[in-house]
Design brief:
alpha/beta; 53% helix
Length: 176
């Protein structure tokens, strides 16, 4: 009788297993809030702004991991900084200044998520902070020593402001 368990174990190894129907957590959790307030901000952004939801979806299918933190030490509304690169994955940190109103925090989040998409689009070329700075010198502008901007991030920020300040669809329909 001890042969039967060995045969069953061998069959389990030899029979091809169907691939999982969903990606592993590391593959689908590319945007990683670092605490509950950051998680709330990301969830609120995805709920209220289709543009943020689209950015999150785009990042979910990238080789970029984005950590998000609300950080009162940030001198501007939001920043994106290089953290690390390894194994074909780039890691960045988005920090959002929490003292602003929710609309401003959501606009800043969208702005920084657009920067994250830009970094994701650069592929494996962003391997350190110097490469990130060089990339933004090519695609954007350095508006202050070490601080960069892109036109598309400003466009996305303005779009999200419109999305979150627009009256709900039911209210718009009543006005017609």
């Amino acid at each position: 009788m001890p042969v039967l368990p060995a045969v069953l174990a061998l069959l389990l190894v030899l029979v091809p297993q169907a691939p999982p129907t969903h990606p592993a957590p590391a593959d689908r959790d590319r945007v990683r809030p670092m605490d509950a307030p950051a998680a709330t901000l990301v969830a609120e952004g995805a709920r209220r702004a289709p543009t943020i939801a689209a950015l999150l979806d785009r990042l979910a299918h990238s080789a970029l991991v984005v950590y998000i933190s609300l950080d009162g030490r940030v001198a501007v509304r939001g920043t994106l900084t290089f953290v690390a690169h390894g194994g074909g994955v780039t890691y960045v940190l988005v920090r959002i200044q929490p003292v602003f109103l929710i609309a401003d925090r959501l606009a800043a989040l969208a702005h920084e998520l657009q920067h994250a998409v830009e970094v994701a689009d650069a592929g494996d070329t962003i391997t350190d902070a110097n490469a990130l700075a060089a990339y933004y010198r090519r695609i954007g502008t350095e508006y202050r020593k070490g601080l960069f901007e892109s036109v598309q991030a400003r466009v996305v920020e303005a779009q999200v402001r419109r999305e979150i300040t627009a009256p709900p669809a039911a209210a718009r329909n009543k006005q017609r």
